[in-house]
Amino acid sequence: MVLNEKAQTEFVKFIELVDVKKEFIFNNKKELTKVFSYLFVVNSLRNRVETKRFFNTEFNMTFSLLLESSFALFTGQCRSALLMLRSAQEANFKFVLERERELMIMEKTSENFEDLDYRFSETYKKFSKDIKGCVDENRYQEYYKTIDRNLTFYKKLSGVVHSGVKVLPVLI
């Protein structure tokens, strides 16, 4: 069975649960199927023996928040889902930053790191500063773009979570 087919099968099982909002799922099926499929793939990768070293116990907090976010979404609690997703993003950024710092120290490229307070924009600045001496910006442009996109998504999530807009944020 192909991964996509397995994800579809599991999605059908999932929407049969009592607590999910079936009307909400039906009205947003395309978007919700996509969300479920992404989580299914991340979970599949996370549980493989050969990827365990990348998804260590520090990643468990991020994944737990992702699951809580998706469950809130499937029960129609869109703002709660986005708040949890923002928390997952913060936890993931912390996880990635600490992992990257470990690797930089192992390579002896930089050992003078500022303490982190894990406010997202401050962490972003410190992370960007940390990698400047280790990762060539011209050679690894996509890496730097990914860091910038992370901040952009965080700002979007913060804006939606804190706004009074009545539009369902799931469409974002």
TrEMBL record:
<protein>
    <submittedName>
        <fullName>Uncharacterized protein</fullName>
    </submittedName>
</protein>
